[in-house]
Design a protein that fits this description.
Layout: H1 6-13, E1 21-26, H2 30-43, E2 48-54, E3 58-59, H3 65-70, H4 75-78, E4 80-81, H5 82-89, E5 92-95, E6 98-102, E7 107-110, E8 113-115, E9 118-121, E10 124-127, E11 130-133, E12 137-139, H6 147-150, H7 157-180, E13 188-193, H8 197-212, E14 226-231, H9 243-256, E15 259-261, E16 266-269, E17 273-276, E18 281-283, E19 286-289, E20 293-295, E21 313-314, E22 327-329, E23 334-335, H10 349-367, E24 381-386, E25 390-397, E26 402-407, H11 408-427, H12 429-445
Parallel strand pairs: 1-2, 1-11, 2-5, 11-22, 13-14, 13-19, 14-15, 21-23
Antiparallel strand pairs: 3-4, 6-7, 7-10, 8-9, 12-20, 16-17, 17-18, 24-25, 25-26
Helix pairs in contact: 2-10, 2-11, 11-12
Length: 452
């Protein structure tokens, strides 16, 4: 079914006047939401129709999902509702999932919206004059047997909520067992596959959550009842960080009680645990897969657009797709190799922000008939938070003369500022500063953990 948007119908009824310029953004993650807000503020609704298509109804910054998963962050407070946000910033929000792109007809097709066994909205399509694909990424299981059946991932708010509920149930099980048998050795065994930022941050946050549970009725439960294994196929954890900082994080994790297993390739996941290539079996009650990402799979086709082996859309150095200059791809679903680099831009939050900013400018140039600017990725460094225990990272750029390793309070301050910058990017300075101040006050007043 083809559905004309209100802007098309309005101008048709007005006697065939020229239609509004319609810019469709698919994906409301860090890149897509920031771009929609920028375009809405700049162009408004008079001559343009900015449409954001997103399968979820609320947005939460993906680097915070490990905190949602452990209850350290209440997503109901920190999430952004797309409908309220679009009203404020002059774009429109369509709740739906991309099914395919028709590059010849300049239309995208959205899958039907299903609730239970009822079809709420039928399959339909939207026209575009310019299209920005920013639908993000999901965890890549590399075809490992058993991952989809027995592992959880942290790709969405729903994933994080599911993990938190499972974690609380396991902690309740052990707490109850200890009350019945005080001399017993019941434990919650958690295996995390992948020692990048997500895996490392989750491992540390688990101990923060475990130690806080004593305040909420689980008096016999603390971090000593956790058995966390962090499994990494590579030679060390945190490959994006300098070796010295990765070693410091490794030491801190082991001090907390994490069993760090490097050089351990996973061959299979079963209900009982993780099977490694060396024959070892790591038993686990909860299993998390955080070993890399791939572009979110699209059910249909992407027209004539070229994609990489892991599903990312190949772009030119202006972030336009290689086969259609009216279509841009940004964020984790895009594969862009700027001039001077021999590998694509990594799928990070800072890359998504820079791509959104650059595409905003290039869309303006394209609509004005001017030459577009090539995208230059500026690596600002990497930071990893080990919950309240520590923060490590490196800063890069002209201000620090190349690369600067930082740890402790300074690193924690910079890490926190990244989220604050995201809030300002999607809300603007006045509201962003107000939300930062509100969040600080609320973090003092609210419970240490979200347990429901």
């Amino acid at each position: 079914m083809i559905v004309d948007t209100p802007s098309e119908l309005h101008f048709a009824h007005a006697g065939g006047a020229e239609r509004k310029t319609q810019i469709v953004i698919v994906g409301g993650g860090a890149a897509g939401l920031e771009l929609a807000a920028r375009l809405g503020r700049r162009y408004g609704r008079k001559h343009h129709d900015i449409i954001l298509v997103e399968r979820n109804r609320t947005h939460i910054w993906k680097p915070l999902l490990h905190e949602v998963a452990t209850g350290a962050l209440d997503a109901n407070i920190d999430e952004v509702g797309y409908r309220a946000h679009c009203h404020r910033f002059g774009y429109r929000f369509f709740n739906g999932s991309l099914e395919s792109v028709d590059t010849e007809a300049r239309r995208i097709h959205l899958a039907p919206l299903i609730e239970g066994d009822r079809e709420i909205i039928a399959r339909h399509s939207l026209r575009y004059d310019y299209l920005v694909l920013a639908y993000g990424s999901v965890t890549n299981d590399f075809g490992t047997p058993g991952v989809s059946e027995y592992c959880l991932a942290l790709d969405s708010r729903e994933d994080a909520d599911r993990f938190r509920n499972s974690l609380i149930n396991q902690c309740l099980r052990v707490s109850r067992s200890m009350l019945i048998d005080p001399g017993g050795d019941a434990r919650v065994r958690i295996s995390i596959v992948g020692a990048g930022a997500t895996g490392v941050e989750l491992a540390a946050e688990l101990y923060n959550a475990a130690n806080a549970l004593a305040f909420y009725g689980l008096e016999v439960f603390d971090g000593r009842r956790l058995e966390v294994s962090l499994i990494e196929a590579g030679p060390r954890i945190l490959p994006a960080l300098p070796e010295r900082l990765a070693a410091a994080a490794h030491k801190e994790l082991e001090k907390l009680g994490v069993r760090v297993l490097t050089g351990t390739a996973v061959t299979r996941v079963t209900q009982a645990g993780i099977e490694a290539a060396n024959g070892d079996v790591i038993p686990a009650d909860l299993k998390i897969w955080a070993a890399g990402v791939k572009a979110t799979p699209i059910r249909g086709t992407l027209g004539h657009l070229e994609v990489s082996r892991n599903g990312q859309i190949l772009t030119t150095d202006t972030l336009q797709t290689r086969s259609d200059p009216r279509i841009f791809a940004i964020g984790d679903c895009a594969s862009c190799t700027p001039a001077g680099r021999d590998s694509p831009v990594p799928p990070r939050a800072q890359a998504a922000h820079q791509m959104a900013t650059h595409t905003f400018r290039n869309l303006g140039l394209l609509m004005a008939g001017r030459s577009l600017k090539p995208f230059v990725y500026r690596d600002k460094g990497s930071l990893v938070s080990l919950s309240r225990f520590s923060t490590v990272g490196s800063l890069m750029g002209s201000l620090v003369g190349g690369s600067l390793a930082i740890e402790g309070r300074l690193a924690r301050l910079v890490y926190t500022s990244l989220y604050h910058m995201h809030l300002i990017a999607i809300h603007g300075w006045p509201r962003g500063i107000a939300l930062i101040a509100f969040g600080r006050v609320h973090s003092i007043l609210r419970p240490r953990l979200k347990l429901h």
